[in-house]
Design goal:
The protein is of the alpha/beta class. The protein contains 10 helices and 5 strands; from the N terminus they run E-H-H-H-H-H-E-H-E-H-H-E-H-E-H. A 5-stranded parallel beta sheet has the order 3-2-1-4-5. Helix 2 runs antiparallel to helix 3. The radius of gyration is 18 Å and the shape is elongated. The chain starts with 7 loop residues before the first strand and ends with a helix.
Length: 203
Amino acid sequence: MNNKKIKVVFSDVGGVLLNNGWGHESRQAAARKFALNHEEMEVLHGFIFNVYEIGKITLDEYLDTVVFNHPRDFTKEDFKSFMFEQSVELPGLLQWLKDWKKSCGVRIISINNEGRELNNHRIKKFGLHDCFDAFISSCEVGMRKPDPGIFKLAMGIAQVTPEECIYFDDRLMLVQAAQKQGIRSYHHQDFLPTRSILEQIKS
């Protein structure tokens, strides 16, 4: 790898450092815990979650559509607490990246699809400010991957060319979307291979 020009590491968050903030397994668990019709919930989630992720509606408005469209014997706060509890750190990479950042000589910036309340919660809970210099989050920029605009925006904010950055994502489709913008992109599958790539970067 020719790393002389690498100035920025872009990375996804869900599926790389943390689990997905509100993935299908969490929604299945919610349906069981709160006795919801999972099939109906998934249909409604599919209609509106993208709107939530680009910051057009609040978490409360998302839940009004997906969960609280019927009378419930639990509160919205109960359900949101459950949602937030679903976020967990994946093994290995996050703490290593925080330590590596102290001496790596490059900036680390997230490019992630996340709704605002979940995004803010995860940044605070897992100390992501100690890992990232900036957050290009879908809820803040009004675009979500694989929109090519979010990658162009990230490079514009970082003031780098495609040759001066690399990108990690756990979803191959999103890796390919970044590659179409000329960004050297890697399919993150495990801590050790990703660490090996990062360790080759020379400041």
